[in-house]
Predict the structure.
Amino acid sequence: MQIAGRVWIFGDDINTDLIFPNTAFRLPVEEQVKLVFSSNRPGWVNQVQRSDIIVAGRNFGTGSSRPGAALLKRLGLGGLMADSINGLFYRNCISYGLPALQCEGVSEIFNEGDEAEIDLGKGTVKNRRTGETLKGSQLTSEVIDILATGGIEELLRKKGFIE
Amino acid sequence: MGMTMTEKILAEHSGKAVVKAGDIVTCRVDWAVLHDMFFSIGGQSELYKIKKIFDPNRCVIIIDHAVPAPTVNDAKGAVKAREFVQQHGIKYFFDVGNHGVVHQALAEKGFALPGKLIACGDSHTIAAGAMNCAARGMGPADMVYVFCLGETWYQVGPTVLCELEGKLPDLVCGKDVFLYFAGKYGDATGKNIEFSGTGIAGLTIAARQSITTMCAEINAEFALFPCDGILLEYLEGRALEDFNPVESDPDAEYEAVYKVNLNEIVPYVALPHFIPNNCKPVTEVEGLKIDQALIGSCSNGRVEDLAVAARILKGKKVNPGVRLIVTPASPAIYLEALRAGYLETLAEAGAVITNPTCGACYGGHMGLIAAGERCLSTTTRNFKGRMGSPESEILLSAPATAAASAIMGKITDPRQIEH
């Protein structure tokens, strides 16, 4: 499974409350997405384009179980890479069909606007501008299967567990 | 090669003889747990249209976050939760009045037991590790999967061993141990944390719960204490079923071993807006003015937390420039603190005592803060804007520090307050 896209740079400790603020809880999903990163990067939701990729530092997605990954996916984000990703957030990425790769040092080799190329099965990433490559954690076949199906909801619907 | 406590529980629940760091295993869970936010957060409408759950006797639903409902939307969420319980015949449902912050409820109602595996739709589920129980938070989609199939996948992380020795000085709490640890060692992303050592014998169950709860904030996967006499005594008459405690093997493999001398721990404070490598001894932060202090949450809303606050505030008044909010973690705790006189002491000092709920910890209700305000809170997170305005600040501490600071109107070392 391979993806490519334009890079947005984020820092360390980007938490779930920045991605999905609690002020969005009571809104319909079309309104929720407008509040993504509204505290730390207002206006980003209007700039991000389909298949763009976030590159971040340590502890991306630290915090709550709220499905911030679902909002990022809905905004058209193609994938996410970070030096480290909170385990619960990583699960949410997979379960909502958003490809995510943990790759120590990835925040060092990209500038905003660079084009990234990711091979999820091999766990490799390449900066198309500089040619630099890195190897992160490979995604297992089980995880890639969930992603390829489009996430848990699709998987359960196909298996007949949910309406 | 031997196994850690976490590895043993994952091995037992995946039907494998051995599980080691790096493995991915599919485990059956003992308990699948959801709270009201699952039913009230917008955009999740399709996810709870589950045709059939794996076992109505192994599922738990609890209303804890928005209690009592602060908005019509939250009230609607609770209605959906009750319908879900009815539709699937779920045996364990804890509605308003019989609730408690889910992690406290799972402990005091005897679900969180040694050797068990719990999946719950809340990030602080790791708290149950104080009961020698492997428990982790999951998002709504993962929880739907667990409710349908009774199992899910786990990536087994490396384990860090934290050896505790000595005894905490007076007015230093379990929360301070965590803040010290997180300040010194930073995050443990993707790792399990296990505690050992002679110092455990001096830690109450509440102190252990405070520590394991907070391990979510350094991104740990699991955080486990061993089972000892203090835990067995706590579980006496409480455990819902039989259980088998797990012990780590002498040759279990650890990525790192940290030694912590509890005698040397002092009150700590986490600075805004994150925790790993961002905590300082209170003596280095003293004097910073606060507008609100909050004592409560799954981290510090237990009887001993209210007791230490009452001890410090007895005969004193909350500073006129400060609101002190006290939110017990469960109705059982509320009642016990009421009978012991702690709530009376706190109310006399000028605290506002709320009903048990997650409340202001997640910025839901009962104690939000405005732009330019600063809150010293015993809750779990100091994220920007978490308790209200993005232009506010949250610092985290143990209840003793929060109580002392509420009196002085500024961040204060509790050891400096006469009591």
Summary: Chain A touches chain B through 52 residues (CB under 8 Å). The first strand of chain A starts at residue 2 and ends at 9.
